[in-house]
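User: quick one, sequence for these tokens?
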């Protein structure tokens, strides 16, 4: 490929990457503002923090853009590069937003499932003094299970798909809008399989806890992007297990909001 032919590819990749980072930065700003507003209105208690279904899903999607767009950028850019090449050869072209929208859809569906479950657990805890008294220990047990999931074969199978954009594209490629949507949805499914238990931890730790969000974002990015990503994932799993066991025996070590 000549330098002249490569320039459109580079420009398009830079444009898509810039848009992803701008959307992620804007989403972080919204989350920080919303977190401050909810804390000032004393809405910080409970798994759902008093949010309605509509507000929760809206915040959830913004959260996914903030936390997952930086980690999904290599896959999105790989998709963009392949279709940019097809467009240059006058072949059928599908815009990147089709892939991205399908990726976001699966995370939105996860939020739609998580919200009623969290709301049900919140109401059940309100009716049970035992659950209220043992909320930190339950949170500690969740930490242990999340750590065990980090070490599981399913976690690492999904992580391997997220760490190899070219291999995923070559193995899952489908032409057309429907194909692009299917690929985005499938990649979102692998991404969900890789990270879902980490997001479950947001509920007991605080769904609008900015510090925890930032920490999880850094962990997910390191798992997917660093050469030692799998080892980082295993170390994080071990740390979660150790912390969870400590919390079970010393409940005060858990900053629970339940």
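Assistant:
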């Amino acid at each position: 490929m000549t330098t002249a032919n490569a320039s459109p590819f580079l420009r398009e990749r830079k444009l898509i990457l810039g848009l992803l980072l701008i959307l992620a930065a804007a989403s972080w700003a919204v989350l920080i503002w919303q977190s401050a507003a909810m804390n000032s209105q004393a809405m910080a208690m409970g798994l759902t923090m008093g949010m309605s279904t509509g507000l929760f899903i809206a915040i959830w999607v913004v959260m996914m853009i903030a936390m997952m767009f930086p980690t999904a950028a290599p896959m999105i850019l790989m998709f963009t590069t392949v279709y940019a090449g097809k467009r240059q050869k006058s072949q059928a072209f599908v815009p990147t937003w089709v892939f991205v929208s399908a990726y976001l859809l699966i995370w939105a569906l996860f939020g739609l499932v998580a919200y009623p479950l969290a709301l049900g657990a919140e109401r059940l805890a309100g009716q049970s003094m035992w659950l209220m008294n043992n909320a930190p220990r339950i949170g500690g047990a969740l930490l242990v299970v999340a750590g065990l999931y980090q070490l599981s074969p399913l976690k690492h199978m999904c992580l391997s798909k997220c760490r190899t954009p070219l291999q995923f594209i070559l193995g899952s490629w489908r032409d057309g809008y429907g194909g692009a949507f299917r690929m985005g949805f499938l990649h979102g499914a692998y991404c969900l399989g890789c990270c879902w238990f980490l997001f479950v931890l947001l509920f007991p730790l605080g769904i609008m806890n900015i510090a925890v969000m930032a920490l999880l974002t850094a962990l997910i990015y390191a798992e997917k992007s660093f050469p030692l990503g799998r080892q980082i994932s295993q170390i994080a799993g071990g740390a979660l297990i150790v912390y969870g066991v400590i919390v079970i025996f010393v409940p005060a070590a858990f900053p629970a909001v339940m």
